[in-house]
Amino acid sequence: MSAATPSDIVQSPLPRLKITEVFLSLQGEADAAGWPTVFVRLTGCPLRCTYCDTEYAFHGGQWREIDALVAEVLGYGVRHVCVTGGEPLAQKRCLALLHALCDAGLEVSLETSGALDVGAVDPRVARVVDLKTPGSGEQARNRMENLALLNARDQLKFVLCDRHDYEWARALVAAQSLHERCMVLFSPCKDRLAARDLADWIVADRLPVRFQMQLHKLLWNDEPGR
């Protein structure tokens, strides 16, 4: 049998993703808040939330090979890594990146809008699903089927802009007993809802949700890469 020639071999390109930035910081929210964490921010997002603080990730970025990304993350020497965006699941190869990071022994979380299917995400990943409220302007993009897929490893986040958002989220949590499925997080939208007001509402209603503020914004405002 003759050996294959170069013309007989089809070389597929290495799997790549378009990346806006990779950086080390403190996790600012969810159950890993405060831990040193490497953030891998993917480029692109199909949503346009009224309060978006990462519009710089909508376009641009650089193509990076998945193996090189994993090596870079490991080079920081911390256990936690968060894959975020933009909307990371808008790039199909995000699933391969999540799998590779888990295989590397890292504690992996995914920050997603919940507008796209989270069912194929590696089960070792903690899925932090940001369900869009009426005040976000993107409520219609919510993929409500995702709610049934969440489990105790996951978290469901609501960024609340006003009292109407609060009442909408409160009703949804109660109607679907979401607090029994996973951790539910209520956050005040910066400059649109006073944190003290939201805290008072949660206490008054004895809601089974976790109040949170975005630690990274308190420390570094909206500075990219922090």
Automatic annotation (TrEMBL):
> What name does the UniProt record give this protein?
7-carboxy-7-deazaguanine synthase
Domain of life the protein comes from: Bacteria
Q: Which UniProt keywords apply?
A: 4Fe-4S, Iron, Iron-sulfur, Lyase, Magnesium, Metal-binding, Queuosine biosynthesis, S-adenosyl-L-methionine
Classification of source organism: Bacteria, Pseudomonadati, Pseudomonadota, Gammaproteobacteria, Lysobacterales
Family named by the database record = Belongs to the radical SAM superfamily. 7-carboxy-7-deazaguanine synthase family.
| Record text on subunit structure and interactions | Homodimer.
Q: What class of enzyme is it?
A: lyase
Question: What is this protein's function?
Answer: Catalyzes the complex heterocyclic radical-mediated conversion of 6-carboxy-5,6,7,8-tetrahydropterin (CPH4) to 7-carboxy-7-deazaguanine (CDG), a step common to the biosynthetic pathways of all 7-deazapurine-containing compounds.
Give the binding site residues for S-adenosyl-L-methionine. Answer: 51-53, 86
Give the EC number(s) under which this enzyme is classified: 4.3.99.3
Gene transcribed to yield this protein? queE
